[in-house]
Design goal:
By secondary structure, this protein is an all-beta fold. The chain has 3 domains: 119 residues, Neuraminidase (6 Propeller), CATH 2.120.10.30; 75 residues; 121 residues. Helices cover 1% and strands 47% of the residues. It has 1 helix and 33 strands. The strands form 8 sheets. Strands 1-5-6-7-8 form a 5-stranded antiparallel beta sheet, with no helix packed on it.
């Protein structure tokens, strides 16, 4: 399973705010935003209002300080006197009975309504626990993916690429598939999508159901999967196909020829709130060595057979790993890149674009190293 820049499985570290120069004048942004935008840097949280005014508030971490966390659902862990403490957002939920040092050897972590599971160590040992009881090891070479609505656990075993189902207590309920080429846990529907022998299958913990075949969709036998709520996107180096839950094609597109080996889809695919559009980004000219090039925002709407280019952002790419993120607010898209480029786009092609990049890169604590910006962007919730 390929991981994009936002890292659904790779945990973020919540460190202390940077000391030193966090003052200075805040540069006003363009007016006319459809909603306020929140920017977070090492110096705190900044709110860009609809009128373009920028205000500063102290940085309040979404999780306890010192925790490593997963932005997809707010799950976090941190060491405490050699034990492992696990929670979600600001809530502490569980403390291990045994010792787990070093804590950075924690791999995947997933929280259910009444239980949790995590992998630990270079040999990838799988542990499960009720939220009110001690952990116990249930398998080697296996790590958790997510929980079913019935409270069972999806796992991935290194051996032969198996997908398994375990009960909350850790007992093996069964093997769902072997020799899987790609898979993705659908958090919105508590289901597991995967590709096996060219077939696209889905399971909620019961017998997997096939609903498409990659060959008939014009894809390679090893596409990557992106669950999008009511939709599922499949992509390879040449093509993207978005399916409805019944397997019918929502939209598809051929991808342009790559200028460099690193070029390709550079953001997660995101579906609009009404489910009528899917957005993604592509790079052109990214060598991973600080080259100049472009990142394009594309839209796929129902029935399209070629994606529509909505925006082109010209930039000097950051060195090594970088990416972009997209977030919907009604018909508007918030585009943000690792380099600090932030643009608000009207989803109706040819309409207004609001470039916040100059304001964002002027914020205290926004500059990182090797072309990366130390800033995250999101639609403000207040």
């Amino acid at each position: 399973m390929a991981l994009l820049a936002v890292g659904l499985w790779a945990p973020f570290a919540s460190g202390a705010p940077a000391a030193g120069r966090c003052g200075g004048r805040l540069l006003r942004a363009p007016a006319g935003l459809p909603a306020p935008v929140a920017m977070t840097t090492e110096c705190g949280r900044f709110r860009i209002g609809r009128d373009g005014r920028v205000t500063h508030s102290p940085k309040r971490l979404p999780v306890p300080r010192g925790a490593s966390w997963y932005p997809a659902d707010g799950a976090w862990y941190r060491p405490e006197n050699g034990h492992l403490v696990i929670g979600r957002w600001r809530q502490r939920l569980w403390r291990s009975q045994g010792r787990f040092t070093p804590a950075y050897d924690v791999g995947a972590l997933t929280l259910g309504p009444h239980a949790l599971a995590f992998s630990y160590g270079n040999s990838t040992r799988l542990y499960v626990a009720d939220l009110d009881s001690a952990e116990h090891e249930v398998a080697d070479g296996e790590y958790p993916l997510g929980w079913t609505r019935a409270g069972d656990l999806f796992t991935r075993a290194d051996r032969r690429g198996e997908l398994r189902l375990r009960h909350a207590a850790g007992g093996l309920a069964g093997t769902l598939a072997t020799r899987v080429s790609d898979y993705a846990f659908d958090r919105a529907n508590a289901e597991l999508d995967f590709v096996e022998s060219g077939r696209v299958l889905r399971t909620d913990g019961s017998a997997p159901v096939a609903f498409a075949h990659v060959g008939r969709l014009g894809l390679s036998r090893r596409p990557e999967l992106d669950p999008l709520g009511r939709l599922l996107a499949l992509r390879d180096r040449r093509r993207i196909v978005v399916l409805r839950r019944d397997g019918s094609v929502f939209a598809s597109t051929e991808l342009p020829r790559r200028r460099s080996r690193v070029d390709g889809v550079s953001s997660p695919l995101v579906a609009s709130p009404d489910g009528r559009s899917v957005a993604f980004t592509l790079t052109r000219g990214n060598t991973a060595y600080g080259s100049r090039g472009s990142e394009m925002v594309y839209l796929l709407r129902t029935g399209m057979r070629q994606a529509m280019r909505l925006h082109t952002e010209r930039m000097r790419f950051a060195v090594c790993e970088r990416g972009a993120d997209l977030a919907w607010h009604g018909r508007w898209l918030l585009y943000s890149a690792s380099e600090g480029n932030v643009v608000v786009l009207d989803g109706r092609a040819g309409r207004r674009t609001l470039d916040l990049t100059r304001t964002v890169l002027s914020l205290p604590g926004s500059h990182g190293g090797e072309g990366h910006a130390n800033v995250t962007a999101s639609w403000a919730r207040y």
